[in-house]
Write a structure and sequence with these properties.
The protein contains 13 helices and 18 strands. With about 400 residues, it is of the alpha+beta class. Strand 10 and strand 11 form a beta hairpin. The strands form 5 sheets. Strands 8-7-6-9-13 form a 5-stranded mixed β-sheet. A 5-stranded mixed β-sheet has the order 16-15-14-17-18, with helices on both faces. Helix 2 packs across helix 3 and helix 5 packs parallel to helix 6.
Length: about 400
């Protein structure tokens, strides 16, 4: 049987048997990693992948010889395996100290950093303050210093680090590994942050948009329920969004990330910092101006009032939901996600938006809105996002 791969021109080239072998090994290694401390047996891997048992034996042997996996001791085997007749299957787990990954997500006033072992356990976490007025180079150095501190805290050398996954704000050119534009940090325009950090730290850096990383984290590890596609709106100091389609981050045709905060909801409307008029972001920022003036995130201060049933707080969120509903309609026409997620700094605010946006859409129902999407609210979780950022490294390693 011939296997084919395709390059950017769409021309098919035969895959070498070594390519097929490597892809199969990466597929199985990823399954073992995701099994965590419970581990995975060869028979379970055969059932999950459809690969033949002799092939699976070779793959497990190769991964063990390479130091990526190890057999779990009998006490760690699943209880049900002990009750089976005959010799119980041996489960394997990722070898925790084989390699290490880092995940960093940052925006204008802080960065969140986590260090993980190869089994996915978080070994170190820190929140790095980014003082107002820092330019792009200064922010990069703060993050580099945080990474060095993580190395020192765990006594690690760079040779053991698989890489750093970096979720950056603004529009990101993923293939070009640059931050195209972020208005809130001076100098962050066409900024080669991945290359600069690689030169400072001596490890590979995988750059993506922070909103996309948060969405990926929620899709893989959050409590959104089972769905094949997710569109997330992130409301923080500004507004952005990201689309996860069958587990993959959606990019534009030129490899840049989405800018959902700059979806036009009124072409003659309020001026926006991006230079256009009528973008979603200035409308929400105007409604949340007291929060922003106090150094809080969008609608963060409404949380306690919503919990006590304050009608004024509900009124403000209702207007915000109307604006978001307009953006949701555009997203549905273009991408048709099955689930919409609103991530804010406040659980009551996130939940209220998840309730109010579909009510707003229901005022003017459209035949294009069938079947109805589900709407979920969530609170920004630094630990979750650190894991998602580190997954950028693992996804590239296991591609």
């Amino acid at each position: 049987m011939n296997h084919f791969r395709r390059d950017g021109s769409g021309v098919g080239d035969p895959l070498r048997s070594s390519d097929v072998r490597r892809r199969n090994e990466n597929l199985v290694l990823n399954l073992i990693r995701r099994a965590g401390d419970q581990g995975l047996s060869q028979s379970e891997a055969v059932n999950a992948t459809g690969l033949r048992a002799p092939t699976m034996l070779r793959i497990f042997s190769s991964l063990e010889d390479s130091g990526y996996i190890e057999p779990l001791p009998p006490a760690a085997q699943a209880e049900d395996s002990k009750e089976r007749k005959g010799r119980p299957p041996v489960s394997f787990a990722a070898k925790a100290d084989a390699l290490y990954t880092l995940g960093v997500e940052f925006w204008v006033d802080r960065a969140s950093l986590g260090l993980f072992d190869f089994r996915g356990n978080r070994l170190y976490s820190s929140i790095l303050a980014l003082k107002g007025g820092l330019d792009a180079d200064a922010v990069t150095e703060v993050i580099a210093g945080g990474v060095r501190a993580a190395f020192a805290a765990r006594g690690l050398v760079v040779e053991r680090i698989l890489g750093l996954g970096l979720g950056a704000p603004g529009q990101v050119d993923v293939p070009g590994r640059r931050i195209t534009f972020y208005s809130r940090i001076p100098g962050m325009r066409d900024y080669p942050m991945a290359e600069i950090l690689e030169n400072k730290l001596g490890i590979p850096v995988h750059l993506h948009n922070n909103c996309a990383v948060i969405a990926l984290s929620e899709y893989r590890y959050g409590n959104i329920g089972k769905t094949d596609s997710l569109f997330m709106f992130l409301l923080r100091s500004g507004v952005n969004g990201a689309f996860i389609d069958h587990g993959r981050i959606h990019l534009t045709s030129d490899g840049t990330t989405l800018e959902s905060g700059h979806v036009t909801i009124d072409y003659r409307g309020k001026p926006c910092v991006c230079g256009a008029r009528g973008c979603l972001e200035p409308y929400l920022a105007d409604l949340a101006r007291d929060d922003l003036a106090a150094g809080r995130y969008l609608f963060e201060g409404l949380g306690p009032a919503l919990e006590t049933g304050d009608p004024e707080a509900r009124k403000i969120l209702k207007e915000a939901a109307d604006y978001l509903a307009s953006a949701v309609r555009s997203v549905r026409r273009l991408l048709n996600p099955r689930t919409f997620l609103f991530v804010t700094a406040s659980s009551p605010v996130s939940s209220a938006l998840a309730d109010l946006v579909p009510l707003s859409l229901g005022q003017y129902p459209s035949g294009f809105d069938e079947p109805p999407a589900s709407f979920v609210g969530s609170v920004y979780d630094p630990a979750l996002v650190q894991r998602g950022a580190s997954d950028l490294v693992l996804d590239a390693f296991l591609a």
